[in-house]
Amino acid sequence: MNGGICPTCGLPKELCICEEVAKEQQRINVNVNRRRYGKEVTVIDGLDPSDIDLQELTKFLKSKLACGGTVKGSSIELQGDHRDRVKELLTKKGYSLDNIN
Predict the structure, then answer these.
(1) DSSP per-residue string spanning 54-93
(2) Across the beta sheet with 40-45, what order do the strands follow?
(3) What mean pLDDT do residues 21-46 have?
(4) What is the average per-residue pLDDT within 78-89?
(5) 66 in helix, strand or coil?
(6) 10 Å Cβ neighbour count for 11?
(7) I need a labelling partner for 23 at 20 to 30 A (CA). Which of 50, 68, 90, 93 fits?
(8) How far is CA 47 from CA 10, 32, 37, 87, 93, in A?
(9) CB under 8 Å to 3, separation ≥6 — which residues?
(10) What angle do CA 87, 92, 98 make, to 5 degrees?
(11) 97 by DSSP, 3-state: which?
(12) Residue 70 gets which letter from DSSP?
């Protein structure tokens, strides 16, 4: 028990459930935008960066989709059209399919 106590839920860090609760409350939008020279970019909006580690989620999605991407503000941008695969991967990570548009 060297992790301390979570300031949000008051449980030890090992038992903290804040991120799981945050996953259930997120309303996520997955869209594809067309950029310069006809390039497509998948944009994932609606994630709260204070509750969820966007860098870790982006790294996971980039490795599974074999594409480049970045975090801009509170959204994730992935190179290419990955709408269907992103929805599938987010449900595997614990997000509710009903909250993903």
Answers:
(1) HHHHHHHHHHHHT--EEEETTEEEEEB--HHHHHHHHHHT
(2) 29-34, 40-45, 75-79, 69-72
(3) 91
(4) 96
(5) coil
(6) 12
(7) 68
(8) 23, 16, 28, 14, 14
(9) 12, 13, 14
(10) 50
(11) helix
(12) E
Residue 90: Cβ-neighbour burial (10 angstroms; 0-12, 13-18, 19+)? buried
Angstrom distance (rounded) from CA 22 to CA 28: 12
Q: How many helices (H) and strands (E) does the chain have?
A: 3, 4
Tokens, residue 53? 């580690």
The top-level CATH class assigned to 27-99 is alpha beta
Predicted structure pTM score: 0.80
The token pair that represents 63 in the structure block: 């490795």
Residue listed under structure tokens 């993903």: 100
DSSP 45: E
Q: Which residue has the tokens 């599938």?
A: 88
Q: Which of helix, strand or coil describes residue 55?
A: helix
C-beta separation of 101 from 86 below 8 A: no
Both structure tokens of 49: 């960066």
Tens digits of residue pLDDT in 67-82: 999 999 999 999 999 9
